[in-house]
Here is the input.
Amino acid sequence: MRNVQQLLDLFEKHLTVMAMAEQLLLFSMENYLEEMEERRYETGVLIHKGQLLKFDKGDKTPQPISTTDTLPSHTSLFATYKKLLEKRRYFILTPQGITHIVTRSDLDKIPLRLGIFGLLSVFETFLKHKVRTEFEEVYKNSLTEKRLDYAKVLFREKIRKNEDIDLIECLQLGDLRTIFSKEKRYKDLLPGLNREKYDKSLRAIVRLRDSLAHAQPSLPYSWPEIYELLIFMKAIMQPSKFNLP
Here is the structure.
């Protein structure tokens, strides 16, 4: 599973909050309210007597930025995701000081979408590995002829392009969901996993993957729901020791 771990490391170690944070736009004490209104900002940052102050919509006066309002610039993308579910915005602390801001609305930017899609792809690779190593002799019995024929067409195309590995590599995520549903194989994925939880989670994962693959502007689940799906996949891939918070 070294190749899976390398892919997981890519998302955990090399994608950070800086991929989606925005550089701070500093206002003055004289015009920050007008600037925030014009730009429809929920949070404004202003500099006053050499000190950075923050003003959240609804506050009475600007306040100093506390340590609980900041994240280090090396914070991973997925750790930032979790933090933004707990709090609407954070200021990013870089070696040059507080220079950027990240808000909950930034979750829908390309970096996190790519990170989630990447994790879904790693999960798919993980499931294929388990089929290849544990169910290679029997997995075909779990799929309809139509689904097998589809995989075989893709396999022949890969052979033509000299890109073939095996038929399992040509299975879709929905096929893998079916394979682990048969004979209660899902019980091998996670201790205590029942059919209802498995079916609900895998159907959601397949739907989310398709939405991201087709770049749909609106995803079918809320950000807390998507995070729970990531936690579910992390639990299944636990032997890979992926440090998703």
